Amino acid sequence: MQQEMTPDNDGPPVREAAAPAATRVRLRADLRAALPDAAAAVGVTAAVFAFLWSRVASGDSATVAVMPFMDDPATYWMYLLSQAFGWSGLLWAWGTVMLGLLLSGRLTGRLAASRAALERWHRTTSLTTMALMFAHALMFAAELVRYEAGLGWAERLWGGFADAFVPGWYDSGTGELAIPIGLGALYLAVPLGLLFYVRHRIGPATWRRLHRCVIVVYVLSVWHTLLYGTNVWYGEWPRTVLWLLQLPVAVLLLARLWRPARRSERLGAPRRTGALAWALRGAGRVVAAAVVVGLVAVVVSGHDGGRERPKPQPPSSAPDDHHDPE
Ligand code: HEM
């Protein structure tokens, strides 16, 4: 039977047999367990949707400042809902990454919740995150289908699907880059998240090595948002908050790399680890420290890539470049 190293927070790692089939965590059970979490995510999405709607109605919306034709929330409600799913997706991605970093570092012993509870929560929030990412892209596709009312159904459906789900299909402005980045996040999140449920087949060590790459999903999601989110388009408080939220993630990543729970992942001496592995581990720690310093510099200096909001202009009625802020 496959052996698995599991972390013992205070002492040396213990060697543990992979779970027998009867006690193995099943996807179906986790999907059921994720229901309360998913219900909370729907509630948060509804609140964000109401907030975005009210900002459009009051004339304060940054989205409308970027795309003045979107000044009617009742017409563009699917776009607003897509944005709302984007925000809940990002929030849940933040939460599940924080939980994952807590679990793989040496902090869990100091927390009120048990390790098992945190693990369960990490799994259910990651399932919810995938669903929210998908709903975000789906509502964007639905809005594109709605908008192209002049075309036949087959063309509308295919166009909406391809623009939202086929990397490289959307060919206008910032979306040319931002949409493939978002799709990269979605398409990586699914296998990297779901491989957990077949780890008895691929081996726990392989699974762990692959699952570590999930941080890339998070980085792509944040990059996509900073690049494309019209509500964080301008150098105003929402963009600052988005940058600030990355600080705890970077600090936890740094802590996880400096003090990993698994003894086998500690830096050690180059002679024992092997020169290449030692150099890679060292470089990872230096990069994480540089990211923390960089984030502090962005927030303190205010150089966050945000633009200046233009003076309000009369709304245009016929958008030439729909759904693209540039
Ligand atoms: C799967 C492919 C994806 C597509 C087609 C897509 C599409 C879009 C579009 C068109 C926008 C611009 C909305 C605006 O005007 O602000 C946007 C923004 C955004 N996206 Fe995505 N996205 C994708 C993936 C993701 C992922 C994986 C996340 C994070 C979990 C995400 C989170 C966001 C957020 C938070 C915004 C900002 C919305 C706002 O400004 O209010 N997106 N996305």
Automatic annotation (TrEMBL):
InterPro entries, alphabetized: Fe3_Rdtase_TM_dom
N-terminal signal peptide: none
Region (Disordered): 304-326
Protein location: Membrane
Domain Ferric oxidoreductase residues, every copy: 92-221
GO cellular component, one term: membrane
Keywords: Membrane, Transmembrane, Transmembrane helix
The name this protein goes by in its record: Membrane protein
